[in-house]
Each structure stands twice: as C-alpha cells, then as structure tokens.
Amino acid sequence: MEAYPEYIDIRKIGINRTGLTTDEKCRYSLTIDFENENKPILVVIMMNPSHANEVSSDKTVNIVIDYAHNYFDKLFVFNVLPIVAPSNDKFANIENLDFHCKKNIETLITELGYLIEKEKEIKIKVILATGSPKDTKIKEVFDRELQSVYKILYNNLESINIESVSYKGSKLKNKKYTYHPSRKENDTFLPDVNLTIIKDPTGKYLLKI
Q1: To the nearest whole percent, how much of the chain has pLDDT over 70?
Q2: Which of 73, 141, 154, 194 has the most crowded CB, counting CB atoms within 10 A?
Q3: How far is CA 138 from its chain centroid?
C-alpha cells in the first residue's frame, strides 16, 4: 500500500466494493475528486484492483493520479475484473465469482451512463489500460469480461474518446490488448494511442487503431 499524494482529499474518495470494511475481495469502482471545476472527467479501465481504498492508494493508481490531477475534475477507475489483487491459486476459488463479475459490469454500465448523461456537452475521455493476465484460468475469465467491457464502450462511442498508452514502440500488447500503467515503469504515463472498437461478423468486439 502507498499513501495518496498530499493534494488528494481522501474525504472525497468514493468506492464501490463488497462489504463495509477496507479488507474486502472485490472493488467495482473508485472515484477521486481533484476539485478542478469546469474540467473534464477521466475514466480509466484497468485489469483488476490492487489495494487503493478510502485510506491508502497503490502504485498503479498513483501513476494515473499523477497524470490526471492537473487536467481533470474527477477520475473514475474501473477494472475488467473486480477481484482485489488475485493470485493464481486463489482466483479460481473465489466464492460467487460470476456474481461479482456481473455486478462489476453492471456498475460500469450504470456509472458510465450517469457520467455521459451528466457531461452531455463534452466527450468523456476513456483510457484503456488493461494489460492481460498470463495465467490460463484467469485469462479465460478476463477475456470474457473484457468483451463485456468493449461492448459497453462500443455502445457509447458517440459520447467517449478512447485512448491507450504504447510501450517500447508497440501500440497494442500481442496486437490485441492495451498496456497496463505499470508497464511504463518510471516513464511518464501519457496516452498516445487513439482507439476505437469495432464489431466483427462473428459478434466479437475488437480494438482498432
């Protein structure tokens, strides 16, 4: 765990998670208010939550905050999977996994829909920064849920701009996934790839540069 930057008012951090304590298995969304009125809203979608909550942050969230805090009013963090810091041996044993994945997608639909309705005059900036898991069992569920995320974005293309971050000259990981913020290491996290989402003849959603 890491401290939030000193300019973040932790009293204004919002979190949607399982249960009422910080020691929980699932986080569906994280909201950070920068108090920059009249500036746009940023939505970042990553792989899965780490440890950021109302009290403490984590390295990846702080990387995104460092990029966003001067240019946006609020930051909304969503994830393809809601499971907090899954390890290979625990992921398959999480109780009610399908339920939590379904609630995660419902949260994205509801909260993104609210933001789009609220910000009618301005397209919302969405940064895809999902990476992809190496473990086969995790990846199977991840790819399934990623399709659900892409479908939501596809259905809202008129209201959002989608960007991602390249890595060592490559714009997509394995030509199909966006890079996770942690892959930038000590480099500045700056979106430099414009994306859209298409639907192929089989009904599968794909990233297109």
Answers
A1: 92
A2: 141
A3: 17
